[in-house]
């Protein structure tokens, strides 16, 4: 039976997670576009208790494709209204060069290796590959960004109120993530007083974020209504905010928060953008039709610029100044809703130059540190670079010239950042794009690669291996699915029909406006846990034939909060909860539905950082935890005490796992290095030392996506399964490592070579790039592999339509 606060409901025939905008005031001024219409969530409920939806997918007739390698399993059309013919589930697909699939014969070298030994495609055996595409994740759009030059960190706020921090020194790894909140809209971010991060939004508060405990630390009311803009001076000692009531207010950054200093001249209409003069003596404020330059000392308006003055009266309409920059030379640069980038002499109040970059709005603007280059983002998804260049060769006179256009987004580019070596843009399509400046890059390599980040660098999928269930984490609800199955056999590369369709078992909605931090499902599928900023929830799931019921576990200890990562033991008897200050709580799961706090593990040295990664051993004796300071601590679960600390490395840990038979800890870092640490011996293994002595392949180290998950083949102790967003790799420790002269190629390409050529390319890395973008991959058992993909086209189909652009011939 279900609990009183849960209810089993039939699954709707059309299930879609729409793109939902942040709450905005009634009189919000936005570009005139259809993409800004807020879409109500079809499953939103007025009552506060969690909702559970039980459903079973209706049966469908399996369809076959003429191309066996590209064919996929059918799926109920109602689950994908945008692409009804795109099936997101495949029970068996080829895994090129890794050894086959569900009861498939291995071809070529793989078959020869099976007869005689070590062929290039050998070793993984036969697999049933479940290709899952029904995880309807739609990343929230990027609203604003702020770059901290000294620490090389980028802070990013999304339209759902979530804040992310990317460490550029750690190869662009997303090292911090603060989940969003329904009532929190972040319109501006800035770094101040070193590494302190502040945000402001339509709630009217200035919020400081605690980057150690991953939560908003404190908030101060701006007393001016919704805050549309915020900027810090060069010293980071003052914050200026632009408010709904037309006021500009100054706050001092003090230990423990911010303190109100003074009001500057008030105007009519909201202040949409702000920029400090590098000297800190003046502020430029942009609004509707006007730019004002304010004297910080007196608080008076020193200059007023009419941005709409040169527009003919017949064409005049409101001109919204969306972004502004104040240069040390006294030049004020603005971008507006007419698609113009204008350069002003603020002392004379005159227009120096104007460039129309788009027929739609120019929404964002950023300047380089040397003030010789700017980047502009538009509502058409394009970004443009302007450079200050000499009029003639050898001339001292310089002018701003538009030099480089880029089209990496499909929707509004709401935020841009200009670093010394790259142009960074974020749009409502959810993508973070890092475009390197080739003239600033010293050599071709990792820093010269174009990067696009759409999916988060953290776990959103949990797998119950024994029960063959998948738990998907959304911002405010969870979905539990059962994988399909087949009873057919076929040839190598053939797609098999499913005898049992995948089933949508549960939809569990979170209570309140807070977004979900983390979640997990036990290996047996009988326990589900998730946490928000203020609540921890544990549920007991009971399976009775084709029916399912769920009951909330009462009496969960309050000391378990905050929880940043959850993991169940392999026997489903204990739950590990990562908390702040490097601590990990161990909770025993009791039948028929209860829990008991056993112990809290803490590092011996002490840390203020939260734990963000966990790994437990299959025998239940060891637990590894990684905190925000990148230290890896290993604990003994037999004695509940600290066992050892892995030597600290200079990069962030992106994934780790403990081998089920050897109890060796395998660690991947953000610089793509791989280490193996023996927990019983408290030292690196011989294989790990050999890897560091010989070095990994150059192309492996130049990959631009971190490893996010590690698994092991239970039949072969030397094989390790790794994956990032763009590739799936099987690392065979029994084979030699490739040197830089060896081709590190996709295994589908390798299979096209002749037998002698394949044997010459034999090495430890077997890479498959068939599954993209890859959110999750794991081995259910020695014969079954599951992959979870989220195609970019599926995400784009869920977004509102972009700005209509004319194309040639239409």
TrEMBL record:
Region spans: Disordered: 58-86
One Pfam family of this chain: WD40
InterPro entries on file: UTP4, WD40/YVTN_repeat-like_dom_sf, WD40_repeat_dom_sf, WD40_rpt
GO cellular component: 90S preribosome; small-subunit processome; t-UTP complex
Comp. bias regions, Low complexity: 58-69
Annotated coiled-coil segments of the chain: none
MF term (GO), any: RNA binding
Biased composition (Basic residues): 72-82
PANTHER family: U3 SMALL NUCLEOLAR RNA-ASSOCIATED PROTEIN 4 HOMOLOG
UniProt name for this protein: UTP4 small subunit processome component
Organism: Pavo cristatus
Lineage per the UniProt record: Eukaryota, Metazoa, Chordata, Craniata, Vertebrata
């Amino acid at each position: 039976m279900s609990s009183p606060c849960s209810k089993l409901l039939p699954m709707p025939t059309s299930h879609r997670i729409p793109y939902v905008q942040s709450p905005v005031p009634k009189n919000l001024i936005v570009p005139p576009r259809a993409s800004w219409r807020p879409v109500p969530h079809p499953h939103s409920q007025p009552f506060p208790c969690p909702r559970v939806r039980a459903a079973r997918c209706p049966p469908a007739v399996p369809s076959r494709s003429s191309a066996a390698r590209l064919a996929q399993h059918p799926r109920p059309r109602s689950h994908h209204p945008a692409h009804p013919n795109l099936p997101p589930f495949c029970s068996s697909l080829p895994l090129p060069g890794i050894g086959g699939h569900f009861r498939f014969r291995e071809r070529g070298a793989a078959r020869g290796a099976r007869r005689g030994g070590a062929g290039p495609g050998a070793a993984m055996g036969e697999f049933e590959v479940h290709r899952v595409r029904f995880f309807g994740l739609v990343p929230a759009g990027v609203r604003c960004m702020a770059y901290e030059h000294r620490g090389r960190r980028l802070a990013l706020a999304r339209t759902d109120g979530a804040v992310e921090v990317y460490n550029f020194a750690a190869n662009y790894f997303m090292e911090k993530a603060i989940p969003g909140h329904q009532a929190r809209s972040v319109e501006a971010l800035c770094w101040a007083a070193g590494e302190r991060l502040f945000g402001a939004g339509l709630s009217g508060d200035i919020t400081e974020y605690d980057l150690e405990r991953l939560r908003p630390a404190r908030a101060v009311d701006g007393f001016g209504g919704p805050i549309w803009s915020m900027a810090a001076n060069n010293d980071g000692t003052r914050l200026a905010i632009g408010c709904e009531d037309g006021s500009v207010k100054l706050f001092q950054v003090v230990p423990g928060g911010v303190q109100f200093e003074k009001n500057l001249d008030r105007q009519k209409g909201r202040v949409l953008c702000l920029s400090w003069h590098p000297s800190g003596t003046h502020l430029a404020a942009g609004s509707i039709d006007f730019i004002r330059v304010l004297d910080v000392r007196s608080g008076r308006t020193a200059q007023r610029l009419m941005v709409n003055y040169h527009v003919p009266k017949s064409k005049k309409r409101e001109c919204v100044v969306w972004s502004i920059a104040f240069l040390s030379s006294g030049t004020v640069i603005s971008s507006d809703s007419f698609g113009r980038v204008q350069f002003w002499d603020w002392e004379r109040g005159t227009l120096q130059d104007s460039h129309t970059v788009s027929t739609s709005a120019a929404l964002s603007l950023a300047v380089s540190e040397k003030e010789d280059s700017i980047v502009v983002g538009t509502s058409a998804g394009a970004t443009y670079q302007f450079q200050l260049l000499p009029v003639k060769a050898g001339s001292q006179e310089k002018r701003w010239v538009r030099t480089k256009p880029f089209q990496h987004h499909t929707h509004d580019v709401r935020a841009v950042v200009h670093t010394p070596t790259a142009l960074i843009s974020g749009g409502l399509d959810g993508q973070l794009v890092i475009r390197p400046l080739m003239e600033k890059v010293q050599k071709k390599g990792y820093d010269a690669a174009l990067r696009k980040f759409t999916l988060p660098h953290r776990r959103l999928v949990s797998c119950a291996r024994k029960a063959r269930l998948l738990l998907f984490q959304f911002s405010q609800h969870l979905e539990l699915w059962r994988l399909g199955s087949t009873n057919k056999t076929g040839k190598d590369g053939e797609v098999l029909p499913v005898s049992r369709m995948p089933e949508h078992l549960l939809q569990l909605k979170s209570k309140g406006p807070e977004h979900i931090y983390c979640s997990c499902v036990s290996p047996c599928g009988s326990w589900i846990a998730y946490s928000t900023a203020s609540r921890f929830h544990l549920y007991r799931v009971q399976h009775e034939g084709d029916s399912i019921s769920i009951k909330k576990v009462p009496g969960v200890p309050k000391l378990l909060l905050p929880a940043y990562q959850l993991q169940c033991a392999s026997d489903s008897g204990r739950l590990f909860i990562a908390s702040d200050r490097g601590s990990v709580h161990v909770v025993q799961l009791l039948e028929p539905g209860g829990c008991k706090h056993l112990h809290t593990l803490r590092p011996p040295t002490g840390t203020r950082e939260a734990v963000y990664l966990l790994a437990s051993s299959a025998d239940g004796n060891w637990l590894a935890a990684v905190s925000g300071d990148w230290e890896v601590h290993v604990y003994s679960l037999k004695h509940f005490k600290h066992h050892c600390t892995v030597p600290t490395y200079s990069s962030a840990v992106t994934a780790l796992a403990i081998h089920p038979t050897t109890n060796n800890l395998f660690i991947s870092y953000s610089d793509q290095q791989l280490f193996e640490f023996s927990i019983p011996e408290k030292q690196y293994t011989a294989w790990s030392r050999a890897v560091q002595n010989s070095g990994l392949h150059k192309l492996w180290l130049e990959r631009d996506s971190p490893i996010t998950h590690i698994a092991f083949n239970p039949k072969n102790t030397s094989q390790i399964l790794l994956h990032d967003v763009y590739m799936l790799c099987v690392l065979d420790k029994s084979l030699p490592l490739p040197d830089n002269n060896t081709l590190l190629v996709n295994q589908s390409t390798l299979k096209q070579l002749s037998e002698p050529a394949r044997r010459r390319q034999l090495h430890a890395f077997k890479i498959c790039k068939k599954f993209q973008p890859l959110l999750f991959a794991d081995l259910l058992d020695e014969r079954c592999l599951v992959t979870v993909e989220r195609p970019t086209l599926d995400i784009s189909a869920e977004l509102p339509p972009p700005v209509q652009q004319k194309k040639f011939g239409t």
